[in-house]
Amino acid sequence: MSIITLTTDFGTKDHFVGAIKGTIYNELPNARIVDISHEISPFNITETAYILKNAYKSFPEGSIHIIGVDSELNEENKHIALKLDNHYFICPNNGVISLLANEIKPEKIVEINIHDRIETSFPVLDVFVKVACHIARGGKLEIIGKVISEYKKMVELQPKISDDLITLTGNIIYIDNYGNAISNISKKVFEEVRKARNFEIMASKYHFTEIQNKYSDIVDFSLPFDQRQKEGNKLAIFNSANYLEIAIFRSNLKTVGGASTLLGLNYRDTITIKFS
Amino acid sequence: MSIITLTTDFGTKDHFVGAIKGTIYNELPNARIVDISHEISPFNITETAYILKNAYKSFPEGSIHIIGVDSELNEENKHIALKLDNHYFICPNNGVISLLANEIKPEKIVEINIHDRIETSFPVLDVFVKVACHIARGGKLEIIGKVISEYKKMVELQPKISDDLITLTGNIIYIDNYGNAISNISKKVFEEVRKARNFEIMASKYHFTEIQNKYSDIVDFSLPFDQRQKEGNKLAIFNSANYLEIAIFRSNLKTVGGASTLLGLNYRDTITIKFS
Amino acid sequence: MSIITLTTDFGTKDHFVGAIKGTIYNELPNARIVDISHEISPFNITETAYILKNAYKSFPEGSIHIIGVDSELNEENKHIALKLDNHYFICPNNGVISLLANEIKPEKIVEINIHDRIETSFPVLDVFVKVACHIARGGKLEIIGKVISEYKKMVELQPKISDDLITLTGNIIYIDNYGNAISNISKKVFEEVRKARNFEIMASKYHFTEIQNKYSDIVDFSLPFDQRQKEGNKLAIFNSANYLEIAIFRSNLKTVGGASTLLGLNYRDTITIKFS
Q1: ipTM value for the complex
Q2: CA distance B7 to chain A (A)
Q3: Is residue A231's pLDDT more than 80?
Q4: Subunit partners of chain C (3 or more CB pairs within 8 A)
């Protein structure tokens, strides 16, 4: 039985997520339902794209991913379903899929057209779940939509390379649970532009000339405990999703603080890398 | 195998919810356990009633709903189990069931009387789970309690109609994840009282003479993008649960704000509708 | 099929927990995965130990518990797997297991040594999940690690008894969802030291000479409603985990407050009991 995952901005207090799961179990008693996240900032497409990209590929092929962020149907926000990398995605056509589809070409995209049969003010429950169950039962995408070739792109998700290849400019696209500020600069893009040159990373007023692979790489374990790098030190790191991240060692937003609070790095702020 | 749902004010940090699920799996290895909400404001019966009413009916018939809010047993707070609308509910007799039972008469109610066999300071784990597993195995309610005919009513959940039928007065009973302020005035009650008259809704110092069916109904898509209704505009809407809600278009409590913060609408505040 | 539980400080917004579940389902399609908590304060070993101790024993024997708090591998923080009380635990060797292992001797402990085969910046996903799936398939601990006899101890988790047996001194080790301040003084230790003497509990500037067994034990139900103990009264109680807790009756951190906010009791504060 297929896995159905949920990625929404519904929060976990309201009845929305429970109602969706109940509806899925009504149609598919043996479904395996997995919450990816319900804590996305309301209507934040960039956050959704980042979370989805880093979560989906851990799931088995054939998994069905419902994305309920900014999904109210209107003439400028249609619903789509697509197959990409042998996974299925059901989402609004608002750009949320472009971080994925930019790297891996969708095999098929349909614009969902079952709405004429459905009166709804809760499309994730009434439309997306129905489409997910259809796919889980082996149904074809063409049955629930018409094939389209284009999806809406989000440009802000891509870092920019200067014409002289000296500067790579990205943005903070995500602040994680530890307050770490994650950019849209992937290790792959960084290395392609770098070509073994030296580099300097500028984030707010802070500079970094090294990128760690583990947080504790900044600790010199040969030193006595009280002379070491401690909680509160800043670092640049390629995180487990392979994006450049500005972090605070052993951060805690409720006590010592994190990169977002201590360094003043916020969603959409610029990260600049100069190569020399 | 029956579904067991959990609706509590336990939060998701503490060990309580994990312990409950472990105990259920100990008794019923194939149980399907679904979290409806654990983020209910501590001891808030009204919130619980609203969430439960809007979540339960999405689940298959025969589902068993455990409600762990204000459930410490004492001489004025007994435990009950009931069958209603072909669902089972296990809860304290503190009024939490009255929003449901007001509309659909319970088929059977029992006051749970297995406590003499159970020493407990955690009744949801020790009593409610035991009752849920008993029901899931096909056991009768009479085995774990004595049949009663009445349950505790909560009057505050019902809106009031003036004698001259000109005014309908309700209250905010729930603030949702987006800061939307939801009243206890259902579309059904509204239309019954309205009888096709004009209306004016007053919430705090704000007036509304239209009720939308979708949030984006306030957007005129024929206008250029920069002349449209934008994030931050207020509206009245019948939400997906069919209750009258005062909302902010594309609200976000952490950035632009929501109806609760921008309009100063709080739990228990009055919503008045005048018909003419 | 074994149950795999997750106890982490990852939060539920980021993609980490979803990715872990997807990876488990990839290896074990029929796994039952249970979230114990993902809301642990970042890097807080004491909180983790308290939650884990109170949750694990509700699960069936043979359950596998993944603990992802402060788990980055480095030369002073190795990974271990152990069998204890017929449950399996996979965790960093940072003391998190000592609240459990202090009471029940582990049957076997191994230091995980499969890292040479795994390049990772996300060890819970890449190492702990692999070990959990190995155990779930009936694999032996010796296959994924080398047997060790000692684990790292955490002394702060144990209360201290004065030489004259007059004073028992503990600490707040956990603030729960209601703001209740929970100490490391168990009912068992309290009674062993007390030996039927009188006692006085001091927490901050507050004194208690009674310990309740239920929160509503402070209410005299024979009084009229408006003359009773109400929301906001403080009490000492042995909580459902049998630890001494300083609580506020019907507390709510967002409205009336809780013991942590109203009495100024914080993580690591001292609780002193004098016997006479």
Answers
A1: 0.93
A2: 10
A3: no
A4: A, B
